[in-house]
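Reposting from the mailing list since nobody answered there.

I have sequence plus structure tokens for a pair of proteins and want to know whether others read the tokens the same way I do. The first protein:
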Amino acid sequence: MDGKILIPILITLGLFALIFGIYYFRNRERMAMIERGMNPHVKPQSAPYQNLKWGLLLLGAGLGLFLASVLTRTILTGDEDENVAIYFGLIFMFGGLGLFLSYRIEKKEVLDKE
């Protein structure tokens, strides 16, 4: 049996299993909530600082990518393929810095409210 025919079959079966699993476990969760006397249609409370967290994470990752590009083109010598680690390192470092900044802002706002 050729591998070219097996790939679409496996993708189709995997997609079907994924959709079935999502609906099955969602139904089990709802039934468990009903058994405990909870309303399964109540939406969970939104996190007020979620947009700030994602915004600062993406801003930090973009800043890290930009800085890595600038460093590769100006200071670092060699081909861009040789300096791949600096791209990942700076993206994760500035993304983490963005998340830390989000945490500090959220903590300050919560303490100011109290």
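The second protein, same order (residues first, tokens after):
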Amino acid sequence: MTAPDTLARLAATIAARRHADPASSWVAKLYARGLPVIARKLGEEAVETITAALAGTHEELVGEAADTIFHLLVLLDAKGVSLDEVLAELDRREGTSGIAEKASRSE
């Protein structure tokens, strides 16, 4: 099992659940509450990931990182951005210095 396969399956599950019953699906519940709540939840998870990285255990960091990735995929789905688009952008950047890549965006 590779990371892209796992992420692709998760993205497909999120897409399948966006219109489910909010009483039975966290994804549907987030969608019912709207984009600002989805975005805020991603922010909360990112902060929890940072906290786990600085003061938590290895297991806590793994769990919080998984929550962050999950909520990022929900946000991308809500905005109509596919995982393939994000992976293509990462592929495009491969082999480019992060410093050089960032500088190219500010030109």
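Reply #1 (J.P.):
I read it the same way you do. Helices lie at 3-17, 26-33, 35-55, 58-78, 83-93, 98-105.
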